[in-house]
Design brief:
The complex is a heterodimer.
Chain A (H helix, E strand, L loop, with lengths): L1 E4 H15 L3 E5 L15 H5 L4 E3 L4 H13 L3 E5 L10 H8 L2 H4 L9 E6 L14 H5 L5 E3 L4 H13 L4 E6 L6 E4 L12 E4 L4 E5 L3 H14 L4 E5 L2 E3 L3 H11 L2 E8 L4 H12 L9 E5 L8 H7 L3 H12 L4
Chain B lengths: L2 E4 L9 E7 L6 E2 L4 E6 L4 E5 L4 E4 L10 E3 L3 E6 L38 E2 L10 H10 L17 H12 L2 H5 L5 H10 L17 H5 L29 H16 L2 E9 L1 H18 L5 H15 L5 E4 L2 E4 L5 E3 L1 E3 L2 E3 L2 E2 L7 H17 L4 H4 L4 E5 L18 E14 L5 E14 L5 H16 L7
Helix pairs in contact in B: 7-9, 8-9, 8-11
Classes of the chains: A alpha/beta, B alpha+beta.
Chain lengths: 327, 463
Amino acid sequence: MAEMTYREAIRQALREELAHDERVYLLGEDIAEFGGSFKVTLELLDEFGPRRIRNTPISEMAILGCAVGSASTGLIPVAEIMYSDFFGMAMDQVVNQAAKMRYMFGGKLEIPMTIRAPMGGRRSAAAQHSQCLEAWFMHIPGIKIAMPSNPSDAKGLLKTAIRDPNPTIVFENKMLYNVKGEVPDEPYFVPFGKANIVRSGNDVTVVALSDMVDYALKAAKQLEQEGVSVEIIDPRTLVPLDMDAIVTSVKKTGRLVVAHEANRTGGVGGEIAAQAGHRAFDYLKAPIERVGAADAPIPFAPNLEREILPDDRHVYQAVLRVMDYGG
Amino acid sequence: MAAEVFMPKMSDHMETGEIVEWLVQEGSSVQKGQPILAIMTDKATVELEAPTAGVLKGIRAGVAPGMLVPVGETVAFIAAAQENVPTLPPLGGAKQEITPPPAAESVPVTAARAPAQTVSTAPGEIRATPVVRKLARDLGIDLAVVAGTGPEGRISEQDVRNYADAAQKPDQEAAAPLVSPIARRIAEERGIDLSRVTGTGPRGQITKEDVIQFVPAPPAPTPDAAAAPTGSSSDVWLDLNPIQRLTGQRMLESVQTAPHFALSADVDMTNALELRETWMSAVTEETGERLSVTGILVKIVAATLKSFPRANASFLDGRIKLYSEINIGVAMGTEQGLVVPVIRDANNKSLAQITRELKTLQGKAASMRFSPDDLNGGTLTISNLGMYGVDRFSAIINPTQSAILAVGRIIKTPVGMPDDSIALRPLMNCTLSLDHRSMDGVQGARFLALLKERLTHPYLLIN
């Protein structure tokens, strides 16, 4: 095991896949010499050259249109959307082209493209550079979605995404790029649709996405001192979603808190809550709680942003609410 | 300066309120107007709001869920963070046996400023999570008979298990209190029923002192285990919800304090029914609801009270108070018990207005969500059981009113006519129960005669 940052783990995945298959290439805004806004692709230009590490014009529609076209004609593109907020510019390519093409051609066409999209706030980057938009894509059948919460998963999930013959989005959390973690030395893949039981517990199940996993762990430590045993599940991928793991856990604990940084209304937490409510109804001891951002644009001012975005305090309070419900 | 939190008087007749739960913990900061305490009256659950901003302090000993607290009693204080508040003597002894103040006049003046209330959930509603409901299903237990100990009366898994455990034991064992041997001997000597004695010892054990100091409480409105006839183990105990319990208490109080007598008359409803048909289309068009016999009764009773104010009265402290407003209460039975919402100023309302209000009140009765205004201030009550096929009955007066009109069904009955022929006429029995302190037999008869005359000849209303 080597310790490395989330950023380095992603770069390692890209390097391994670029080396593994010459059809793999990267494209995005300023990803070559500059290494991308978050320096994830730094140095790859030197190793693989400008044909495979390609800067693009400032046009998300062009980036993803090119990715769809090249994927359908035999290449394996890994596109970077500098901020996932910019997906708006290219939604037709994702929703109507990438997600639908295999279906429209009767299964004869594969679209083995991967989109890397840095997501999230907490950086005082204001309303247009701080969003978590995973729910948009979870609503569209035909796209797989990963949300790695640590370096090891970031590498393993990205490698799986690149090998997958279907369009896949990997939401990378900007606040995790500098976070270090153990990453296996030997080649490995993290399968899609297999949740990670981050922490075992008996009283409450907390399903946490992306960096909410770390916040949930922090809350769980505090709660443990207060006698509350928290089980934390990181689904790792939203499509496919490992509801079996979540339902098994909820049947054990009888209480569920779903935590994500995206705002609550229309969020992924609602979908998980609904499925868990349906499948584990007879086991519920309290209403399912959702932790998420307030329904408002993310403020620029750091103090206001802290008010709006959820963290360990919100998980802690939600857990206490389900514990105190009195079921 | 600390502000007192006290049991507000939310209706004319309210003497006590039951503590449901503290919504804020002692020592917590509260905003002015923040709900801090859920209390249950005989009419609804209401949330008491903080009279001012500050810290909730000095919750009085004994002010716990299930406790009945007399109107006007201070239960806690809202004070500044550093401020000390007095420690009040504990409230009451046994649960629900606090003696209410003897008369409304002794209530502190402060009680008049009842804070704004928000009617929340209806009492009697079963609150239980899915897992508890499944457990109850599996154990074959009806959750309606399980007392919830959780927030807002929520039934927990433990409550269901406790109930199941208790149900498995023989009744006597389950009910047997912990008693010290000497206490048991003294109780036997003095003929004291130990199930009525509250234990103050460890784990609620009844001590010698508890027995010696025991003063027999007045007869409880509900039969207790000792008074009930011995039955088989398959007998079922039903707990009363607060509405049922307080309705029972009020009815008992009424028959014990108001000397009842009843006057009865059969009324020929031919013309009243014709009036109903005549008005039906206009009322239906205006309100979307059918004009009911009850609606006509409200109108005619109100008009009769207008010309006979003596029946629109209360006997209070040796005097009779005549009310200027005529507010007709209409008894409504619901799954959760009896409620008597009020149509205010009924003598000044049209049939359509009365019909619309009756419909609104019936809707509220279905969910037991009333505002205090819906239920307060009635001056005479109508109880109509005609729709249940009841021919005639007498009702218990709704205190502190002076009379209640019990109405049976309308049924075609052979009647001897002035020309000695026999005709079938739709008759309806009206039985008026009266408080003899307010009205004697002659006065009651005059009121009933006036009412009968107007029901028989409703066109007399046009004047």
